[in-house]
Amino acid sequence: MILIADSGSTKTSWCFSEKGKKSEQFNTGGVNPFFRTTENIVTEWEETPLANLSGKVDRVFFYGAGVVNEEKASVIQKALDVFFPEAEKEVHSDLLAAAHATLGNKSGIACILGTGSNSCLYDGKTIIAHVPPLGFILGDEGSGAVLGRQLVGDYLKKTMPTELQHLFQQKYPLEYAEFLNRIYRQEKPNQFLAGFVPFLSENIQNEYCKNLVENAFESFIVRNVAQYSGYQNRPLCFVGSVAFFFQEQLKNVLLKRNLVPGIILKEPLLKLMKFHLQNDYHE
């Protein structure tokens, strides 16, 4: 049996399967190792379906946000060791998940456009080049957090078209001080800002919204994708809710630059399972 996890800071999606049988899925809380310890991860997992899978799993592949080095990977590895001591285990970044899910064993550029953004050059086996995303203050171009930051900033400065200002106020009746408090004083301002992205989706036919989104994707290409050698001739694949729901605008930007759009997925989990079943069980 293979068990695969795709984890963010708020949610972990799990999928387990045996060859020839239908995959099953469930969710647990997020386990970003920047914010969690092995001990509290284990405590949480004891109350989930993972406890019932102990002793039944042969291989575990965990892909997660925050898995940036061996130290962070070990936080997850040790928790997995408690539940699956006999299983073979691998812990990788969510960026490698994007590459495996969209490119498989082929080379190309894999990108994440969700609450945050990220990208890499992948040779069909490993990540061979990576531009640091830098978070929503210094980077994360094209991400939900940056789209939300631009949207809220334009609303508060009243540079947003008047008719959209009225719609925005109706949908989000927050006072000026509430915006600043949530962004500068509360935890996870990136998630707060990304929460305004549905407004862009609902009003994407408005020229202002369309331009805001496409300009953000243009910035993502210029500051990230264009740094990779030969990017003009490589397939560009994307994972994440922003890429998925704004794929028309994303493809517009790529085609204007004569770039090659590849696969666009909302979530990588099922494609990851397919990738590992194909690669771990050779006919």
Offer a quick outline of the entry:
With 283 residues, the protein is an alpha/beta fold. It has helices at residues 38-45, 50-53, 70-83, 94-103, 135-138, 144-157, 162-171, 176-184, 189-194, 197-202, 207-223, 241-245, 247-256, 269-280; strands spanning 2-7, 11-17, 24-29, 59-64, 88-93, 108-113, 117-122, 127-129, 235-239, 260-265. Helix 1 (38-45) packs parallel to helix 3 (70-83).
What attributes characterize this protein structure?
about 280 residues; alpha/beta; Nucleotidyltransferase, domain 5; Transcription Termination Factor Rho, Rna-binding Domain, Chain A, Domain 1; five-stranded mixed beta sheet; 14 helices; 10 strands
| Terminus-to-terminus distance | 16 Å
Whole-angstrom Rg: 20 Å
Strand order of the largest sheet: 3-2-1-4-5
**Proportion of strand residues:** 15-25%
The DSSP helix count reads: 14
The helix/strand series, from N terminus to C terminus, equals EEEHHEHEHEEEHHHHHHHEHHEH
Mean pLDDT figure:
91
CATH architecture of the domain at 2-100 and 268-280: 2-Layer Sandwich
Total strands: the figure is 10
Helix-strand makeup class:
alpha/beta
Sheet having the most strands: 5 strands, mixed
CATH topology of the domain at 2-100 and 268-280: Nucleotidyltransferase, domain 5
Look at the structure and name the CATH superfamily of the domain at 2-100 and 268-280.
Answer: ATPase, nucleotide binding domain
The helix content, as a percent range, equals 40-55%
* Low-confidence spans: none
- What is the highest CATH level, the class of the domain at 2-100 and 268-280? Alpha Beta
The global form is globular
